[in-house]
Specification:
The chain contains 9 helices and 6 strands. With 196 residues, it is α/β, with parallel strands linked by helices. Strands 1-4-3-2-5-6 form a 6-stranded mixed β-sheet, with helices on both faces. Strand 5 and strand 6 form a beta hairpin. The radius of gyration is 20 Å and the shape is globular.
């Protein structure tokens, strides 16, 4: 019995360490995003009132999933020329995408009267993407890109999430790979690469 006690104690301690570690690890920050106060899309749209017409058109399509393929997306970018654009490529199954959506909710609300924000949903089932936007609404629309043809035109890598910064002349200024963990981190890249 005395010989078995250290082994039993060791197993119990190891189990406790694993349980605590796994519970703190979460789902790549998704639990943190879910624990924040819910985003008020209607309030955000009120704060964005008075935006220039091309940006106001985006706000009217908040949290919508749009079709149109490469042609529709390129037409939208042409309509936004003269305004810097931040394009976030996401998927409903992507934990880091889910974790960074609050960052885009906040910055798009604060800066959406001078900067265009667009989503690009790739490699996803349409209904899953629509459900995701109901759960995590943003004050801008997302375009469907199931075969990643739009992403390829943007030269966005295949991984998720990806953020593409397009300057006011319509030229890609920077492509960020991976999750933004704070509004300040995203705002710093907006200032650095778009100059606004």
């Amino acid at each position: 019995m005395k010989r078995a006690l250290p082994w039993v104690l060791g197993v119990v301690i190891l189990t406790c360490v694993l349980v605590v570690g796994l519970s703190q690890a979460g789902d790549n920050g998704a639990d943190q995003a879910a624990s924040q106060a819910p985003f008020d899309l209607q309030r955000a749209k009120r704060e964005l009132a008075g935006a220039p017409a091309p940006l106001a058109a985006l706000h009217r399509q908040s949290a919508e999933l749009l079709g149109g393929g490469v042609g529709g997306f390129e037409q939208r970018l042409a309509e936004l020329e003269g305004h810097p654009v931040v394009i976030n490529k996401w998927a409903s199954w992507c934990g880091p995408c889910r974790a960074e959506f609050p960052v885009f909710q906040q910055l798009a609300t604060e800066r959406g009267r001078e900067i265009a924000f667009l989503g690009l949903n790739g490699a996803d089932a349409e209904q899953d993407a629509r459900d995701f936007l109901v759960r995590y609404p943003v004050p801008f629309p997302s375009y469907e890109d199931p075969d990643e043809k739009i992403a390829q035109k943007l030269k966005a890598p295949a991984n998720y999430p990806i953020t593409v910064f397009v300057d006011a002349r319509g030229k890609t200024a920077f492509i960020h790979q991976g999750q933004y963990t704070s509004k300040q981190q995203l705002a710093a890249d907006v200032e650095r690469y778009l100059g606004v």
